[in-house]
Structure formats: structure tokens, C-alpha cells
User: Which sequence fits this backbone?
């Protein structure tokens, strides 16, 4: 299984970025969950957003209304549209695939991480 994130970079506060995650070597079928995590400097990794095979999405409070998670099943890609970015969104973002459907945890595959820097 190969998982690659793209789309990170540096932006000023208020700007936007779109992260993408492309996977190969696995099949999306049945019940599953996909997610984006981040690790900010000096903090533990946290789940940012998730989407399951039913299309149900979840977000942490701090990104609600600013971030949108989506998936393209045909292309095996997962995206995270990030708008109105804030300096506290700075961190390394990770794509996580094939988590448990109901609880969106215990993900089987992870990307290598991509850096997002938001300056004030």
C-alpha cells in the first residue's frame, strides 16, 4: 500500500490550501473511515476531520466551518479543503485510510505527512 499526500505549503493567515491524499494497493469497499490528522509543534497528533463510507463527516471544533473533507472513490483520493487558515493550523498533516467505520479509529494505512505553515 502506498499513500502520498500533496498540497501543503506556506500561506498567510486567512489563506487557503487544499490537501490531497492518493492511495494505491488497496480497495475501498464495504464499511470504512478515512481521516486527516495533524501534529502541531509541541502538541500530540490530533484527528482533524473524518469521512466514512456513508459520507458522514466529522470535524474538530476548531476547524468546523473552515475545513471540508471529501473523497473521490473512483480515483482513490481523499481531500481536505482548508479555508480561513490560522497560525494555529500550522503543523504536519497526515492522511489516514481504512479506519473502523463506526468509530473512525484504528486506521490501517498512513501517509508520510505534509507540512502546512500559516503565518500571522
Assistant:
Amino acid at each position: 500500500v502506498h499513500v502520498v499526500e500533496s498540497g501543503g505549503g506556506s500561506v498567510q493567515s486567512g489563506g487557503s490550501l487544499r490537501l490531497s491524499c492518493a492511495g494505491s494497493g488497496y480497495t475501498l469497499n464495504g464499511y470504512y473511515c478515512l481521516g486527516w490528522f495533524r501534529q502541531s509543534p509541541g502538541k500530540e497528533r490530533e484527528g482533524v476531520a473524518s469521512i466514512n463510507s456513508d459520507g458522514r463527516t466529522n470535524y474538530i471544533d476548531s476547524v468546523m466551518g473552515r475545513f471540508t473533507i471529501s473523497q473521490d472513490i473512483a480515483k482513490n483520493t481523499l481531500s481536505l479543503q482548508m479555508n480561513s487558515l490560522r497560525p494555529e493550523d500550522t503543523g504536519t498533516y497526515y492522511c489516514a485510510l481504512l479506519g473502523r467505520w463506526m468509530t473512525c479509529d484504528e486506521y490501517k494505512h498512513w501517509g508520510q505527512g505534509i507540512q502546512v505553515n500559516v503565518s500571522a
Observations:
- The mean pLDDT is 94.
- The chain has no helices and eleven strands.
- The two ends are 37 Å apart (CA to CA).
